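Collaboration report, partner site 2.

Our partner group contributed sequences for two proteins of shared interest, and the home lab folded both. The records are reproduced in the order in which they were received, starting with the first partner submission.
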Amino acid sequence: MPDMYVSVPYDVNGAEGVNGKPVNSKPVAGTVKRGGYPAYDILDTNEGYEIAKNELKNPLEVTEDNLTNGKAMYDIYCAVCHGKKGDGNGILTERDKFAGIPNYKDRELTEGSIYHVIMHGKNLMGSHASQMTPTERWQVVQYVEKLKADLK
C-alpha cells in the first residue's frame, strides 16, 4: 500500500480535477464560511452602530412564540450579566465580576442597536453572533424591547 505512505497530491482547482473529474470550487449557495455571518454587512464601528441604530428593523412579527424563544435565549446568554429583568443586576454583577452593566431603562435602545451589539459586542460585552441564529437574535431583540418597556 504505497499510497498510504506517499499520498498522491491532487490539485482540486486544477484542470483535471480529482481523479479526472472536474471539481466545482465555488461554495454551495447559502453556505457561510467558518466564523462568517450571513446577511449582515454593517461594520463593527461607531458609524456602523449608528447606521444599525437608525436604520435596521426587525423582520420578525411580534408573536408569543418569538417572545417565548427570545426569553429562552435571553435567559441563556444575557441574563447572567443583564439580569432577568434587564436591570443590569445579573449574577455576575452581584458577585462583583463585572461592574457597570447598563440598565435597559437608562439606555437609548432601538431594535437595530440591540441586534448590532449582539452581532459585534460593545465595551465589555463580546459578540454573541456565533451562539445564536439570526432568527434567535431577532427574537432576543423583541424580548429585550419587552423588558425595557416593563422597566418604565
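Second partner submission, folded after the first:
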Amino acid sequence: MSALLYKAWLETRVRFIAGLTAVAIVCIFYMEQHAWLVRWWATDVRNLRNPYFYHSGMWWGIHEYGWYLWHYLYDNYLQQVWALFAALFAFDGLIRERASGTALFSLGLPVSRKRWLFARLAMVLLESIALSLFAVFVVILGSSVIHQTFSISQMVLHAALMVAAGAFVLALGNLCYTLLPGNYLSLLATLILIGVPYLWLQLYMQRVRVAELMRVQMHLPTQPHQSWLEYFDLAHAMAGPWQLNWATIPWVSLLVIWTLTGLVLAATVAYGDRIDY
C-alpha cells in the first residue's frame, strides 16, 4: 500500500505544491488587507452610506478578527481555492496510464483495481487535509505579524469541516476522471458539475440569510423555513457558522453530502472494475 501511495504522490506533487502556493497567497492577501478594509467599513458605518453592509452582519468584521478570517477565507476564497485543487488532485491514475500505454503493466502487478483506486483516494484526501492545515499555519504566522489574535481551535475546526464536506468534490472529480477520456474533458465536466450548482446555491442562500437577518434587525416578521435547497448547499456546509461547536455544525447537510459522496464512490468502483484499459 505504501508503494501505491508513493506513486500517487509522485503524480500529484506538482499540483500539491501549486495548491500550497495558492493557499498562501489567498491567506496572506486578506490578512494584509484587514486594516484597510476595517477602516473602510468603519467609515461606511459612521456615515451610514451602506445600510445593506451594516445589516448583512459584516459589521462583525470591524470588531471580530475571527469573523473576518472566517468570512473571507472559509466562507469564500480559501474554500474556493481548496475545492479547485481538491478536484485537480483527483486526476491521473490508471486512466492517465492508459493514455500513455503503461496501464497494462500497472494492472499486471498483484494489486486489485480497488486498491489502486483507494490508494489514490487516500493520497488525495491526505493532500487535501494538508492543504487545509497549511492554511491554518499561514494564518497563525500572518496574524502574529499584524498583531491580531483569534481562536486557533476554531480555525482547526473550520479546516476539518471544510475537508469533511469537501470530500464530495474529491469523489466527484474521481468519478468524472474515470468515466470520461482525457484530462481536459474530465476536468471541464468536474468544474461544471461542481462549480455551477456550488456557486448558484452559495449566492442564493447567502441572499436568503442576509434578507432574513435584515428582517430580524428591522423587527419585521420572519419568513418560515426557506428551502430544502440549503441541505445541498455545499459551500455553506464547508464553511459552517463562524462560531463552530457541536450544536452549530450543519449535521443534516453533512449527512446529505456524505450520502451523495458514498453513492459517487460506489459508482466509481463499479465502473472502474469493468473498464477496459
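Feedback sent to the partner group on the second submission included the following. The first helix runs from residue 2 to 32. The chain has one domain: 2-274.
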